């Protein structure tokens, strides 16, 4: 249960970073937000990835 909450909060951080990336007005700001978003995506838990794949019918 705690792991799912942690995954949910992590996904919210990814979503917030996406909003910041889309709102960025300079190349440097976009670069920073894109790097942060990439890092957050790469830090997803294996359980979260498995749930996403299952929900999308990939497994």
Walk me through the structure.
The chain is mainly α and 59 residues long. The protein has 3 helices and no strands. Helix 1 runs antiparallel to helix 2 (27-42). It starts with a helix and ends with a helix. The mean pLDDT is 96.
- Helix amount, in percent? over 70%
pLDDT below 50 for ≥5 consecutive residues: which ranges?
none
The fraction of residues assigned to DSSP E strands is under 5%
Q: How far is the first residue's CA from the last residue's CA?
A: 23 Å
Task: Describe the main β-sheet briefly.
Answer: none
CA gyration radius, whole angstroms: 13 Å
Global mean pLDDT? 96
Structure classification: mainly alpha
Number of helices: 3
Query: Number of DSSP strands?
Result: 0
Helix and strand string, N-terminal first? HHH
Principal-axis shape equals elongated
Please sum up the structure shown.
With 59 residues, this protein is mostly helical. The protein contains 3 helices and no strands.
Question: How do the helices and strands line up, and which of them pair or pack?
Answer:
Blueprint: H1 2-23, H2 27-42, H3 46-55
Helix pairs in contact: 1-2
Main traits of this protein?
mainly alpha
């Amino acid at each position: 249960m705690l792991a799912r909450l942690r995954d949910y909060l992590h996904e919210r951080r990814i979503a917030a970073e996406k909003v910041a990336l889309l709102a960025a007005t300079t190349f440097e700001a976009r670069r920073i937000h894109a790097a942060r978003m990439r890092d957050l995506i790469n830090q997803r838990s294996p359980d979260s990835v498995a749930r996403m794949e299952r929900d999308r019918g990939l497994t």
